Known about the structure:
Layout: H1 2-18, H2 20-26, E1 33-37, E2 39-40, E3 44-46, E4 52-53, H3 55-67, E5 74-78, H4 80-88, E6 94-96, H5 103-106, E7 110-111, E8 116-118, E9 120-125, H6 130-137, E10 157-161, H7 165-176, E11 182-186, H8 189-197, E12 203-207, H9 208-217, E13 224-226, E14 234-236, E15 239-240, H10 245-259, H11 262-272, H12 276-286
Parallel strand pairs: 1-5, 1-6, 10-11, 10-12
Antiparallel strand pairs: 2-3, 3-4, 7-15, 8-14, 9-12, 9-13
Helix pairs in contact: 3-10, 11-12
Amino acid sequence: MRRMQIVLVLCLMLGALAAPEAFAETTSHAPVKIGYVADQAPFSSRGPDGIPQGYAIDLCNRIAAGMSPAQPPEYVETTLADAFNAVAEHRIDLACGALTINLARRALVDFSQPIFLTGASALLRDDSPSDLRELFFGERPISPPRSPQMRAFATSLIGVHSGSTTEARLRQAIAEGAYSASVIDFSKHEEGLVALETRRIDAYFADRALLGDLLKKAQSSSDLIIGRRLLTHESYGIAMRRDDPELRLRVDRMLSEFYRSDEFAKLLQTYFGSEAPVIRTEILAQAIPD
């Protein structure tokens, strides 16, 4: 009997030591480590002073203040390819940016409720090949499907950010439409924009929200157009570790409260201008109620 009592006491002691570990991390007074991808404006980018800025960064700053009010957040620059591993390995607490929620990534990390909804299309020149307009604007010729006068689509090059969820969908759309386009990977969106403007590629494929920001940075924005046809529908979220349900609950609770505030409407206006009311309606439709 005494032996069983000793075993029971040991089990209770071990449980008491182990159980609070994950929760303790979420309520720590240590700085919250915010990971960000520097080329995802207007969601996350490196500001002129080296401090990250953007819509997703502002949301994560609010969350960090709620988690550790006594300490300013600690920023860690990462890449899209490594961001989710960094969260899973506890090198960062929150990954913030234009991060699409999907099942493959959820095998590594957990996500907050959606912070933004968008879809992928392409930025192209106004003199881009007809087949590109067909793919990204839905402008199909009546008959024949592709006239002999069209430039061979096999010579068209479409740029995309390497490691993004949009790359797989782009290749799928090309295959489904029996196109013969070549896909070129870029490590940064700005590199793709430069390649488009210098005619090294014919279109650059990314989420529309990111394309709008690239268009503002273009040398000759009047010569570029954003496709109307969306080949994907993306929900962005804040990535966090999977082994801490208390953390996700706290993050979602803070987001839900903020979404209902006038301050959230002003934040959307700051980054998305006239599209802010529609974006807010879409986000609220996906928000988790109390």
